[in-house]
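To fix ideas, we close by showing one paired sequence and structure record:
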Amino acid sequence: MISIENLTVQFGGFTLLDEISFVLNKDERIALAGKNGAGKSTLLKLMAGAQQPTSGIISYPKEVTVGYLPQQMKLSNERTVKEEAALAFEHLKKLEQELEVLHRQLAERTDYESDEYHHIIQRSTDVQELLLMSGINDFEAETEKTLLGLGFNRSDFNRPTQEFSGGWRMRIELAKILLQSPDVLLLDEPTNHLDIESIQWLETFLISRTNAVMLVSHDKAFLDNVTNRTIEIVLGNIHDYKVNYSKYLELRKERREQQQRAYENQQKQIQDTEAFIERFRYKATKSNQVQSRIRQLEKIERIEVDEVDNSRLNLKFPPAPRSGSYPVVTENLAKKYGDHQVFSNVTLTINRGEKVAFVGKNGEGKSTLVKCIMGEIGFDGNLELGHNVKIGYFAQNQALLLDENLTVFETIDYVAVGDIRTKIRDILGAFMFGGEASDKKVKVLSGGERTRLAMIRLLLEPVNLLILDEPTNHLDIASKEVLKKAIREFDGTAIIVSHDRDFLNELVSKVYEFGGGGVREHMGGIYDFLSKKKLENLQQLELSKSPATSKQKEKEEHLSENKLSYQEQKEQNRLIKRKEKEVQEAEEKITKMEERLSEMETQLSTPEGAVNFDLLQKYLETKNKLDAVMNKWERITLELENLK
C-alpha cells in the first residue's frame, strides 16, 4: 500500500528520522510507538503528504487513497454537522452532476455513429458503475450511522459546527475521513475526547471496515484491540514488531536486555584490547601484535543500547485527613438548563475510601454532577457532603486555564502558601520539571506537560476527596500508569471521570453510568460494567426485532437470532461463573470478619479492653465493613439467582 525507503528528516543539525524503511501492507493496523518527540506525528504527516522529508522516498500506487486525521484541524463554521460530514461524498456528488450532463448530451445529440457520441456513452456507463459501486444511494444513511456511532445525537445533525467544542469538531472530521473509506487511514490520537462507547464503535469500525491503518494513541486498551503490528521509533531508527502493543512491550524488554548484555561483553572486549595495546605499545617484540589489535579495535562496530526515557513522573498524594463515612450522598438530585433536563432522580452514596468511575457519552451530565458536588452550580433535590470533606479537583479544561505568560515555577509559586513554598523545586522535579525546565514558559509546553503542571495543584494541600475529570488526556502511557498507582494508593475517596478503560481497570470498584437523563449504579470494575452493558444491548436488540416480510429475510433473521442467542448464552455463562466466584469471596470475607469481631468482643469484655478506645474504634469499623460485605453478598446472590 505505502512503501517508505531511506526516509530522513533533519531540523537544523538534529536528525529526527535517519534513513528508515518499511512497508505498510493491506490488512495491517500499525501502532506507532516511541517517547514524546521521537517523530511519530512527523512520520504520519510525511505519509499524508502534509510535510516533505529531507531525503528518501514515500511511494504508493496511483489509485491508493489516504485519509489523515491530525491532532489539530480546522473546520468551516458555515456548515451544519451533517453537511460537514457529508463533504466526504463531495466527489460522488460531482460524479452525479457529470452523469446528468452526459445524459443531457446524449438526449440532445443526433450524431449517433460518431466517435464522440460513443465516447459519451462509454463515459456515462463508467460513471454510473462507479456511483453504484460507491453506494451513492446510501450516503445519507451512512453519514447518520457514522455520526451516531461517534456519539452525536440526531438533534445535533442540523446544528452549526461552530457551536461545538474542539473535541466534538475532531469527531466531525473523523466521521468525514471514515466516510471517505480511504485505502489507508493515518490517525494521530483519534481517541482523545471520545467516550468509551464511541471508542468501542471506532475499534469495531477499524477492525472490520478498513484496509490499512497506522495510528498514534496513548490508549493501551484501544491499541491492543485494534493493532496487529507495532513500529517503535528510537533515536531516529525504527524497530518493527509483528505484534500488538502489549506483546511489543514484552519483546522490547527482551531486546533491550539482550542489547545490554551484548554491549557489556563488547565493552569488556574493548577494554581488554586497549589494555593490551597500552601494555605492549613500546615493546618492539610485540609491535606486530599491537598493530593487529589497533586495527581490530578500529574495525569493531560499536553496539548502541536503545535510548530509554528515564525521566519518570514521581507522584504520591499526601495522606488524606479523615472524613465522614459517606463523603457524597445525593437523593432525588436533578439539574436542568432551561427546558433541557440533564438528569433527574439521582440517588447515590459514595463511601469513604471508595474509588468510583463516572462514565457515559459526552453531554449526559458527568461534568455537571461534578460541578454540583463542587458547589459551582445550583440544583434541585438533596446533595450532602460528609463531615470534614476536603476536595481536590482536576477539571477537564484545567490545563487550558493556565496563564501562558508565566513560567512553570511562577505558576506554582503564585498558588502555593505556607511551608509548601519551600518544597516547590522538589515537587517540580517529581513532575519532570527539574532544572531549566522549571523556567520554561507555559505557552511552549506540550499538552502532556500542561496536564502534569495542572495536576501539581492537587499536591499543594492534603485532601480526602479527589475529583478528576478526564485526567489522562494528553498523558503518555507511562505517566498514566504512575497516576493510576498514586490514586490506587491514595487513602481517601476518588471520583474519576474517564473514557480510558485500561486506566480505570483494577482502579475503581463501582461505576456510575450516565445516560437517558439518569444515573445507574453498577458494582464491580469497568470491565464488569462493559460485559453487563454488552449483554443488555444484545437483549435490547433481540426485543427490538420486527417480523420479516419475506422468506429470505426470515431465514437471515433466524440465523442472526441463533448467533445472538449463542453469544448471549456464552456471555451469561461467563457472568454466572464470575458471580459465583464473587459470592464465594464475599462469604470467605464474612467468615474472617466474624472471627475477628468475635476476638475483639472477647478483648472488649475485659477491664483493660473496656477502656481501650482504639480497639473499640477498630471494632466499630470492622462491624461497618461487615455490614457492607453482607449487603454486597446479598446483592450478588440475588443477581446470581436472576442470571440462573
Summary: The CA atoms of residues 331 and 347 lie 4 Å apart. Residues 544-564 have pLDDT under 50 and may be disordered. The chain has five domains: 1-65+182-243, 76-181, 257-299, 328-527, 570-643. Residues 551-604 form the longest helix (54 residues).
